[in-house]
User: Fold this.
Amino acid sequence: MTKVNEEDAKSANEEEESRTKAEPEKLETAMAVKATAVRSKLEDKEYLEGLSSYIRHVNRNVSKQESMDMAKNFVKYAEKYEVDEKIVMAIAQNESCYYSDAVSCEDFKGLMQTGDGLARNAGYDPQELFNPAVSIKVGARYISMKLDEFGDVSLALTAYNQGSGSVHSGNYSTGYAELAMARTAAMEDYLEDNGYVE
Assistant:
């Protein structure tokens, strides 16, 4: 899923403000509904259990508690950076198969296989990338930046994997993005087939 267009969001906010200036009670209600909508996935225990179950389905070495913690962090940071959590999870599956201690030959670390520079830019010591919550936060922030840069999920995923320079130069392969999108679809099917979503 792509991020919400900032102009559309601003326009919607302005419309809501003009409608509700004369009706403060409705404004409070609208704000409560919006806050509830933002929290809904984190509060949906069945949905979180489905994401957790999917992680264990892919990697049986991840414990139930670890997978639930990961699921909560995927949702939390996807919401924070306005990215679909299933895209963030698909990146983690592509990059590390949900192994939080993964290290690549290029020294990318953790679930999301991000580099030391991204960790430092986000205010973390690179060794903290082995903490799943930190890795997910840094990776979700990075894919959000790529979505802002390219405005296209496939190109953003490609840039996550191959760098923005490759995408801007036209010298890239879409294989990584295609795999991530296929995994996102498989995740959606898994959640639906197992009764976690309708």
Observations:
- Confidence is low (pLDDT under 50) at residues 1-38.
- The chain has ten helices and no strands.
